[in-house]
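Notes to self after the Tuesday call (sharing in case useful).
The group wants a holo model before anyone commits to mutagenesis around the pocket. I volunteered. Ligand is iron/sulfur cluster. Logging inputs and output together so the record is complete.
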Amino acid sequence: MPVIASVPAIDELIAAGSPVAIGVSGGKDSQAAALATVAHLDRIGHAGPRLLIHSDLGIVEWSDSHPMCDKLADHIGIDLVVVRRKAGGLMERWESRWESSRVRYETLSTVTLVPCWSTPDMRFCTSEMKTHIIVAELHRRFKGQTVINVTGIRRQESRKRAMATVATRQKDGRMWDWRPIIDWTVDEVFAEIDRHGLHPHPAYRGFGMSRVSCRFCIMSNLADIAAAAAQPEAHDLYRRMVGLESTSSFGFQGARWLGDIAPHLLDAGALQRFADGKIKALHRIAAEARIAPGMLYVKGWPTRMLTDAEADILAETRSRITNLFGFSSACLDRASIHHRYSELLAEHERRAA
Ligand code: SF4
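Result:
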């Protein structure tokens, strides 16, 4: 087995019997990390509690992901804890974000329409749907203890991950993130799974995916998106996601639209709505291009009053977008826009005070 990366702080916590929680997704890296970590803990005599923890994101996940986590827990002989967001899975989160974007637009609480999808720079799908929920559960279970939170992150996966450290203490000081297989290669990961007589998620060898995560991930490459769309179990989700692209006018990966990947899965009505959505996107982008950076809010607040000319531009833009999307927007003329900016500036000042 390749080397398990560690640091003295992690070794001390293990020696003291701190709880170890291993995050699992059903994918190969977390599978190998769980197998290797538990073997390491046994070898060095860790006596504290251990568990696997999985955040269930709902219908965006492959049908095999949860069963893979169950099988892994059975093989290792430790409990699997499954957590989920009370308000629904990731698809529901993307849909509700579009709904809130519409309401914020109508009330001029945002100057431009906000995309519904998470992006590589704004991964609320990971932070809200996985990290926060898992951390809250571990704090609840292990009150007053320092928990070691294990992930299967590897440096080979991306340029950003190449910069990752072996272990990091979280800001609240009550948890350490530990990445024991950080230097493993992909071959070493598969070899570890094979060595235990287990199988990796069928999506790798059966569906031809290079990564197993959400069926359609904001960071998937084109080949993985096409491979996912070819799987019958992903078709209902595919249509729902294309529906959201059509309604919102935002492509799932910005310039890459899911609706272009497998249009044969869409009926005539869905195809028409998708074509309309892409046209709406062009009109939206053209309309919002007239908004100068200084007119935008920063962290949700205006930074200054608009000039009359700017307020007129914003009124025209808002009228065009409101008609395009069938919104019921307020603040469609110069006076009401000035009023809204002054109201928000005063509110921001009041809160700051
Ligand atoms: S797998 Fe992709 S889409 Fe799913 S939560 Fe992670 S980053 Fe977001």
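Two things stood out.
Residues 118, 123, 125-126, 129, 213-214, 217-219 surround iron/sulfur cluster (CB under 6 Å).
The domain at 8-89+122-205 is CATH 3.40.50.620 (Rossmann fold).
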